[in-house]
Specification:
Chain B: Catalyzes the isomerization between 2-isopropylmalate and 3-isopropylmalate, via the formation of 2-isopropylmaleate. The complex is a heterodimer of chains A (421) and B (163). Helix content of chain A is 30%, strand content 18%. With 421 residues, chain A is α/β, with parallel strands linked by helices. Chain A folds into two domains: 259 residues, Aconitase, domain 3, CATH 3.30.499; 145 residues, Aconitase, domain 3. Chain B has a seven-stranded mixed beta sheet with strand order 4-3-2-1-5-6-7. The chains are: A alpha/beta (421), B alpha/beta (163).
């Protein structure tokens, strides 16, 4: 019997020929990740185990990105715990402010997450690495601690939902719109305890940046992973980056799927997810009311890559951010920051009246750098629009693509790119 | 072991952002987290909860962020266990790993009302609603997870394996 991608990866990492949904396996992990919020708890738990060394100092990544650059004294203390742990154990992949970026943009860029691998991270958006054909999945701090000691983690083999995207995208429709549309269709628990495989010609035609946006939000449908089989695009993306040898894993042709969903992307409009769940999606053409906004956030682990910044800049060119809107742009990493700067994107943003920040998760989770007051409304390229996510519990977050967030910033209300020109 | 407590009832998709808002995540001290538990959907929770009380949720309880601070906040607020129609997967594993009993039981979760008293046998998964007298059977944990629970959480389990 054939296996799905996740079944093959879990079997290979637990030295088995075959695994089936429902089985529990104890699998080797190739990379263990933590950030400044989750790693301090993991360090405390790691120290309780009583081992004096980590399983492999090159296979742990520590990225202070959530409240970094340190937003207050308490946050500074948390980062200090992570930094001191990294120094004590000589962790190769510790990324200090100045080299760091938003973890899920940074790790693929550094070639630390590779096809066929298992990456666990104490951050729910670790599923981003599915875009490289890896099993990336979010865990908690205790799982992270145990894996730092043992190099292993337990997994229940999940059933897989295969989603086939066919057809050609309309202008200004991106990976973000595809994943929002998908979550709108299956719901925030539509893939609970399950893996998803994204496939079809529309996925093949999508850039690596667009694929990472899609896999990033697998968790917003409750999924354990959102996998995309590696192809020539993946290989060429990894050409000068990959830090290790890797083996591409593709699903068997006779793999068994719990469900197959077919989506014709040529029918999909740019999507907006209304508060307070990512499943509350509407196509722009279905929005009849005028929804005024006070803030537009462009960036994050979902949409902080160069293609995202280019899409926003294309809309902002020669335009101005509306006088009632604060527009904040967050490049995902230092390399993306530099590239965007050299491409002249910062000139466009700044001339339009948008602020450009150093990489941080800051506003996405209501941490810092763009908190909302009572009753304020934001359009955001981030991944969650829960109650109070970006600040006050009476504030609201609408999720959309960089192009829609940029167009909305210009118009002062939720608007599509077509309305700007 | 049998647990008995008063029900705090919530709906579907209770996410970890409302269980413990990110603005409090600059600390990982369990007592600090507990003081703000459920604050964004139930301002009075931390004041009203008593040792042993039980949270009952709908579908997809604990969705969103992987923050282990969420089950920690619930545990240190004094909650003895969480019963829900279903749990988000990271919250599910985090709870087992830190030793917060959770039970998946759609029937019991739907029938329970705020203020009801539940008696929960965490060994066999039996849930009894003392108001209605009805009993329910929760989905049992696979043997591997029972082992982690028996060892008192993942760290103790790993210790046993490594030492």
């Amino acid at each position: 019997m054939g296996m799905t991608m996740i079944e093959k990866i879990l079997a290979a990492h637990s030295d088995q020929d075959q695994v089936k949904p429902g089985e529990i396996v104890n699998a080797r992990v190739d990379m263990v990740l933590g950030n400044d919020i989750t790693a301090p708890v993991a360090v405390k738990e790691f120290n309780k185990i009583g081992v004096d060394r980590v399983f492999d100092k090159e296979r742990i990544a520590l990225v202070p990105d959530h409240f970094a650059p340190n937003k207050d004294i308490k946050a500074a203390e948390q980062v200090k715990v992570v930094r001191e742990f990294a120094q004590k154990h000589d962790i190769t992949n510790y990324f200090e402010v100045g080299q760091m970026g938003i973890e899920h943009v940074l790790l693929p860029e550094k070639g630390l997450t590779l096809p066929g691998e298992i990456i666990i991270g104490a951050d729910s958006h670790t599923c981003t690495y599915g875009a490289l054909g890896a099993l990336g999945t979010g865990v908690g701090s205790t799982d992270m601690a145990a894996a730092m000691a043992t190099g292993k983690a337990w997994f229940k083999v999940p059933p897989t939902i295969k989603i086939v995207y066919s057809g050609e995208l309309k202008p200004h429709v991106s990976g973000k719109d595809l994943i929002l549309y998908t979550i709108g269709k299956i719901g925030v628990d539509g893939a609970l305890y399950k893996a998803m495989e994204f496939t079809g010609e529309a996925i093949e035609n999508l850039s690596m940046d667009g694929r990472m946006t899609m896999s990033n939000m697998a968790i917003e449908a409750g999924g354990k992973a959102g996998l995309i089989a590696a192809d020539e695009k993946t290989e060429s993306y990894l050409e000068d980056r990959a830090q290790r040898e890797y083996t591409i894993v593709k699903p068997d042709s006779d793999a068994e799927y719990e469900q197959v969903i077919e989506i014709d992307v040529s029918q999909i409009e740019p999507q907006v997810a209304f508060p307070s769940l990512p499943e509350n999606t509407k196509g722009l053409n279905e929005i009849t009311e005028k929804i005024e906004i006070h803030q537009s956030v462009i960036g994050s682990c979902t949409n902080g890559r160069i293609e995202d910044l280019r899409a926003a800049a294309e809309i902002f060119k020669g335009q101005k951010v509306h006088k009632n809107v604060r527009c904040l742009v967050f490049p995902g990493t230092q390399a993306i920051y530099k590239q965007a700067m050299h491409e002249g994107l910062f000139d466009i943003f700044i001339d339009a009246g948008a602020a450009v920040s150093t990489p941080t998760c800051g506003p996405c989770l209501g941490g810092h750098m763009g908190i909302l007051a009572d009753g304020e409304r934001a359009i955001s390229t981030t991944n969650r629009n829960f109650v109070g996510r970006m600040g006050s519990t009476s504030s609201e977050v609408y999720l959309a693509s960089p192009a829609v967030a940029a167009a909305s910033a210009i118009k002062g209300h939720i608007a599509g790119p077509e309305e700007v020109k | 072991m049998k647990l008995k407590g008063k029900v705090f009832k919530y709906g579907d998709n209770v996410d970890t952002d409302v269980i413990i808002p990110a603005r409090y995540l600059n600390s990982s001290t369990p007592e600090n987290l507990a003081a703000h538990c459920m604050e964004d959907i139930d301002k009075n929770f931390a004041d009203e909860v008593s040792e042993g009380d039980i949270i009952v949720g709908g579908k997809n309880f604990g969705s969103g962020s992987s923050r282990e601070h969420a089950p920690l906040a619930i545990k240190y607020a004094g909650v003895s266990c969480v019963v829900a129609e279903s749990f988000a997967r990271i919250f599910y594993r985090n709870s087992i790993n830190i030793g917060l009993p959770i039970l998946e039981c759609p029937e019991a979760a739907k029938a329970a009302e705020a203020g009801d008293e539940l008696e929960v046998d965490i060994d066999n998964g039996e849930i009894k609603n003392m108001r209605t007298g009805e009993s329910y059977q929760a989905v049992p944990f696979p043997p591997f997870m029972q082992e982690i629970i028996k060892d008192g959480g993942l760290i103790e389990h790993v210790k046993k394996e490594l030492v």
